[in-house]
Each structure stands twice: as C-alpha cells, then as structure tokens.
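Input for the complex:
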Amino acid sequence: MLGLLVEQPDTVAGVGVRLVQRFPHARWSRSAVYTNLPSLVRQNHVRLVKEGHKPALNRYEATATGVAHFREWVRESAAVPPVLRDALQGKLAFSEREDLLALIETVRQEEEACRQKYATAHRRFLKARQLTHRSAGKDADWETMVRRVQVADEAKVWGLMVRRLQDLLEELEGLLREIPASLNAGEAADG
Amino acid sequence: MGELLSLRSVSKGFVRGGQPLPVLVDVSLEVAAGEIVAVVGSKDSGKTTLLRVAAGMERPETGEVWFGDRELTGFSDAKRTRLFGREIAWTDREGPGVRLNVRDFAGLPLTMGRRHGRREVRSLAQQALERVGVPGCAGQRWEDLSKWEQVLVGLARGIVSRPRLLVADDLLDALGTKRTQEAGDLLRSLVEELGCGVLMSVSDLEAALLADRVWLFTHGELRLMSDQANAANAEIIAFPKAARRGGDSRGVGS
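Predicted:
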C-alpha cells in the first residue's frame, strides 16, 4: 500500500482497487486498506491530504520518510522462505533497475555468507567423522556421534539455502535482462 | 598434490525442439589423486553429462579435458576406450540391462580391451565384491539385490579395475543418513587403499558431505561450495557470478 502511494497519492478506495489490480493472486481482506492506511499515518509514512465526505474518499500521500522507508525495504534482501514469497513479489513489482541491482547484490552477499557457513559446517563434519573413526571399536563416543549428525544437518541447511539463493539470483538476473529489452521495445514502438 | 583430472573451460549443449540447450557453460574443475570431489545438482541439471565428459565418454564442444598429462579431447575413440577400461572407471546405479549375475556384472569393466581371461575376470570381480562386503551376492541377479547391495556392487564395479580415477554418477543418493555415512566411510577407505581420485555427482547434500571438495552445479555452471582439500585457500575462493560470466578463471589453481 505504501508503494502504491509512493507511486501516486490516492484515495482509500483507489488504493483498494489498485491493490487488487497489481497483485491479483494475493488475498486481501476488504478492510485491509481501511485499517492499514491509518497505521501507516501513525508511523509517519503517509499523511492525509484531503478528508472526503466518507472514509473511502479520504485522500493520502506518502511522506518523505515513507518514500525513504519504502525504497530501503525494496532493496532489502528477499532471500526468503516460501511463506514470504508475497513480499518478494511485492518488491519486484515496485523495483526499478537500480533497486533490482541492489537486491541482486544483497542476495549475492547472502549466498556467499551461506556458502561460507556451509564450508565451515562441512569442515566440522569431516572432523567429527575422523573422531568417530578413531573411536571405532572402542566404547561408543555418544557425544561425537551426535555432533556428527548435528553438523551434517547444519551443513544441509546452509547447502539448501545456497541452492535456493542461486535459483533466486538466476530469476532476478533474468528479470534484469528483461528490463532494458522492454525499454528498447517501447522506444522502438514510439519511434 | 598433482591434478589427476582437469576440466578447463568446458562447454557442451544439446538441441531440444530446435532450440539450443546449454548444459555445461565454461566449466572448470580438478580432481587430485586421493581426493573425493562431489558435484551437487538437482535431477536433470546436466551432472551426468558433466561426468561423461570428465570420464572421456563424450567430447565437449569447447574446452579441454586433461587426464594427468594427456589431453583427452584429441584422443581417438579407440584410445579413449582403452584409457576408460584401464585407468578411468565409471559406476552408477544402473543395472546391466541383460541377464548377468552380479559377479559377471561387477567384472564387466575388466572385459574392455580383453586384457584378462574369463577366469581371471571372475576372480578379480569376486575379490572386489569381497572388498566391499557383499561376496554372497556374486551368484545373484542384479534385480534381486536390495538398494543398498546395488550400491555396494556399484562400488565393486568401480574398483575392480583398480582405476586411477573413479567417476560415480548418483551412486550414493537417497540412502538415508546411516547408509550414506557407511557408504562414505567405505568409499574413503577404498580411495586410501587405491590412491585414486573420485568424481561423484549427487543430488543429495548429505552425500556431498563425504567429499573433500563440493561444487554446486546449477544452470550449467559450477560454484565452489566447500574446499576442505585446500582449506587454507577455501576462504579466498569466491567467484562472483558476474566475473565468471565475463570469462574469468574458476577452477582451483587453473
């Protein structure tokens, strides 16, 4: 909603209509706009510019703080579990080329951080494996065995994150490649 | 440690529905004697193609494949077949496809180039089966084996010719934690015994942990995940994707 008001000032009813148009696959309750816009006002992200004769016609616009907050949010990482996919779609819907570049850079850094964590967990796993080998045939070293399983699980989690982030990067880079192409097509049509 | 296998900027693709489908895009990797290298990727990501090129079974479109000091892409088919039978072994979870007992199936790599008589092949195959702990399976059919026994027979097939390089395609996938660790321990002991290098593909991150070096294979490109063989260098080996696409070197030490 904040993004829509950053694009242009609008009434509560207008924001509701544009919300459905922009995100047709997301589910919104009818009251979402009525409850969230006043909340954004309290956070000083939007302000009421004109009061209508009924609440649906109250007109809002984004404040400078709101614009800055929104831009920052768009560029934050979207390397997210599936439950936050809607947030990613939201970011992409409002992303300009510079935002997308910044997002790609953030995801790349996160992917690198996860890769380092995977490498560390892998090192610990091999170490634990060596230790269990040394104690083979002797009394079972329960703690070492547990450690081996734990670090294996840890490495798998980081490995999965790296794979997911790689896929996301590929997707974002694909989108980035489409941006100049569509601009050129538009220019050609205009010409 | 001297490199046993070295892929340098290898590319390969296919044509599907009239459209070019790049499978390997400027891929570089190395395997040294005594180390296990894992390539992790999802199903149908092109891992098998990568391994077939590495094993000299397929030629890349561009790039070089070095085995020791020999460049394989320039070899004739006959020369590659000889090398494949003697120094490079391939193994996977596929059965023989014809009615063979397990001992004859495990001995198949020895029949390439006809260096051994039938009796010797059977004897060596039996030894390999004993080494991996399934001597009792020798007279059985492949189809009658359990999944775990098939993996062990796959390992026996891989080591029967005492290769310098073992290429294992999805052999250790989806075995569960306990069996994966057992298979890893066995593979490690075989590597120490034979002094060979191993290049294996896995889709399972658990199986990848058994390796000294782990590469992530995605969208035709390789990305180094972990390098415990050169742990001191591991932290500085980071390949920004943009740089790689620009044609920068990616292989460790290449």
